[in-house]
Amino acid sequence: MGGNGKHRWKFSFYHRSSTNSSSSPNHPNTQPPPEFLCPISGSLMFDPVVIPSGQSFDRVSIQVCRDLGFTPTLPDGSTPDFSTTIPNLAIKTTILTWCRDHHTHDPSPLDYTSVEKIVRSKIQHPLSSAPDIRVSELELLKAVAENPPVLFSHAATEIGPRINNNLFCSTSSSSDESVIVTANSPHTPLPLTTRPACFSASDSSSSSIESESLNPNSQSSASPEEQELFSKLKSPDIYDQETGLVSLRKLTRTNEEARVSLCSPRILSALRPLIISRYNVVQTNAIASLVNLSLEKPNKVMIVRSGFVPLLIDVLKAGSSEAQEHAAGALFSLALEDENKMAIGVLGALQPLLHALRSDSERTQHDSALALYHLSLIQSNRVKLVKLGAVSTLLSMVKSGESASRVLLVLCNLAASTEGKSAMLDANAVAILVGMLRESELVSEASRENCVAALFALSQGSMRFKGLAKEARAVELWRRVDSVGLGTEWVETFTEAKSKMQKIRKRKQQQQGGDGEAEHAHSKSKISSEGVDQEPYPSYHRPTPEECRAVRDDLLALHGFPPQFLKYRHQRHHHNDHAQQETVLDGLVKTVLSQNTTELNSLNAFASLKSAFPSWDQVLAAESTSLENAIRCGGLAPKKASCIKNVLKCLHERNGKLCLEYLRDLSIDEMKTELSNFKGVGPKTVACVLIFNLQQDDFPVDTHVFEIARTIGWVPSIADRNKTYLHLNRRIPNELKFDLNCLLYTHDTYCVYREACRYFWDITGLEVSAVLASILTTF
Predict the structure, then answer these.
(1) Does 117 qualify as catalytic in the annotation?
(2) Where are the annotated ARM repeats, by residue (predicted)?
(3) Could you read off the pLDDT of 521-542 as tens digits, one per residue?
């Protein structure tokens, strides 16, 4: 325990590089600060990167962990998220300075093989405790202005192609991310806005980039137009700077191609110093031009990595009113990109944006609130906002009516985290939100619905919520709502909502630990004996074909078709080309490995399995412990290994070879019978193999699909998963099953609010008052 009271990590596999052990007589203490050491390798970091939790690791160490599918456990029981990393140039510079000051050799690049041995020893001999090594975010900011040219690459994601005014959803790639539409209109819901208030031109299209070399001296592909603008922007004459910026601003206001072509390293390097120009006109036009450039998706990451965020923060703190409007708009536009969210938060934009919520400018307030909304979609920024005291600030604004509809969006995100929920309950958020609903005639519909979403999030998993709601006399509010004319219809809706919420809660208690497919023998026999032709709810007429088609079209417009399922979609259109398809046995094993774990872990487990045992004959001959070790990163290794060995053993005994391709020649009922005969292969696994590997029209029902089907009323509230499978396979048209199944799975995976998602409120027809009432009755 150090002087600051924080626990420090102590890995038994601590290795110090010999290059770091040299000392000088003038510097007897050459032990490097723990912040400079990679928590995994134990040596000075050569290429430090920062992850969402704020810790720094050497890039090679993270790559080894990714390749091995291993995530170390922190002392508090949490695990670091290695999905997103950004270069920590500040700590790298500090390490090099420390080495020079202490006459110690600079850190050397880590050897991949050496780190792999360390990580493998950690996998085999896990430790229960280790010291906490955190990088200081203040150090991360010190050398931002000295950011050298670096080659970056990132994956671009698509932006939704249309507006849907009935949508109020958020998505996560990772982590919890936002559903984005590509245009603003006077009626576009705030969470779906993608253009800053200071921008009024037409919408732009999406595109993608793979890598950018941020070299401002590169002129190989510069157009004459770019050369002219670059010369003006670099001119020492203020008039030339003004004319160049006005031209750039006009060119990028409506011309989408110009935005992409002119967002070059050379133009950005020339634009950067003008952001902090002492001349107000120059500064305002420079930031407005940056807003225009940031509207194109390929430009967003490049702008952040070019060092503009600290400059925009300075303008937001001390710039003119008009410059602050554009700075808030730029930060909002940049925050829409998933890869930027963590970086913007780490670089210190949250506090100035919170302050800007009380700006005299309506535009600044609007864009600051939406920037905070999108930034708070990731956990690391939620924690930072709570530590900054954002909850009390936001609740006071809601109470006073200042920008309530915008501020409530941020509170909804904070309520979805443990830290935010606790802070909101401590700050009397329940009473404030219920009081806001009481003044319904003074509150907009969007604000009322956001209040409902925030209350719903606060009610989930909180033992304090019910007592606080009673203290706020929330029950009186429901009675008053009932007395104004909803009558019997409201009571019926209330009862339906109550039933839905209670069933959801009961199901979650029964399914702790993930997907929850137990693969019981009675489930298999039920599916085999009843078959899809046995309708469990013959008098229940939902969903209709029209409903199925409408939901498919809406989700397709919202998300696009999920890229992870594109190869299976292609195979369905070329089902006779078996040479290009994944084998049925591969598909069955992949599905078994996907149970009760994340998609990433299951893919890593399959890759590890094939690496250890390239052929299925080798898997069959392998010892059970060796097989378990190979798939351990996917979780439940003993159970899954036993299932895989049983499938292979049965295949060998029946057919003399390890192959399931013969299933392609059978009828769908025969396929189901054959697959169900394998011990440990249940209805969901059978359905997944049918739809993805055998190109049959089936509709698997996992936890995601079951949860949505129950929420939107496609099955009765008493339905279990097996009956839901039978019912939906009868009701959903065959031609819609594949696309709809993939889209429902994707939507439930991405949506932050899950059951509270407004999209599904609209489908079920539940009134806001009924959902509120259901919240209170679940405890």
Answers:
(1) no
(2) 307-344
(3) 444 444 443 444 478 888 888 8
